[in-house]
Design a protein that fits this description.
With 169 residues, the protein is α+β, with helices and mostly antiparallel strands. It contains five helices and five strands. The chain binds flavin mononucleotide. Flavin mononucleotide (FMN) binds at residues 11-12, 14, 65, 114-117.
Length: 169
């Protein structure tokens, strides 16, 4: 797929078929994540790859929109590292860019994925910190559920000319 087609046709996939995601695919997803731009090139991210289903299915206990984790093969928690970047605003932007790279690469590989918001919801952040035993300086920002898609969603082009302003508002 060319880049624009990948971007335009990506959708959030929340139903998955059983099936493994290979180590090669996981490494490709993480390589894409770490290729994201970051403020001052701090690369202030850490990733927790969750393959243990027993851990994964505990997440819907504290995250109200995470039921698809019962069907997912793998989940990747994208976390900010405050020892590498103190400014939480930049951590969120850096980790969000990394998250989007994971989603686009998953789609390009024929996998399905959905972004689950963690930051800034305190109960979700506390739940992730506790479940994954994250050190105090690590901020859980997002979680990506991944698997082999069991649904096909239509491409929706969302371009809105009235949201575009040239030179002045
Ligand atoms: C910051 C953020 C948080 C999100 N959180 C959730 C979530 O908790 N659960 C979920 O099912 N989808 C979540 N989504 C996915 C959005 O619902 C989805 O991207 C949006 O409805 C547009 O649909 P599309 O991704 O298919 O284009 C989140 C997306 C973003 C960017």
């Amino acid at each position: 797929m060319d880049t624009f087609q990948t971007i335009i046709s990506r959708r959030s996939i929340r139903h998955f078929k059983p099936g493994k995601i290979s180590e090669t695919e996981i490494e490709k997803l993480l390589t894409a994540a770490m290729q994201a731009p970051s403020a001052r090139n701090t690369q202030s991210w850490q990733f927790v790859v969750i393959t243990d289903k027993a851990i994964m299915i505990k997440i819907p206990q504290f995250h109200p929109y995470a039921e698809m984790l019962h069907e997912a093969s793998v989940a990747i928690a994208v976390c900010g590292d405050q020892s590498l970047e103190q400014n939480v605003g930049y951590i969120i932007q850096n980790c969000s860019a990394a998250t989007q790279n994971i989603l686009l690469t998953a789609h390009d590989l024929g996998l399905g994925a959905v972004w689950l918001g963690i930051y800034p919801r305190e109960p979700r952040m506390a739940g992730m910190k506790d479940l994954l035993q994250l050190p105090e300086y690590i901020v859980p920002v997002s979680l990506v559920a991944l698997g082999h898609p069991d649904e096909k969603l239509e491409t929706v082009v969302r371009f809105m000319p009235d949201r575009v302003h040239y030179d002045k508002w």
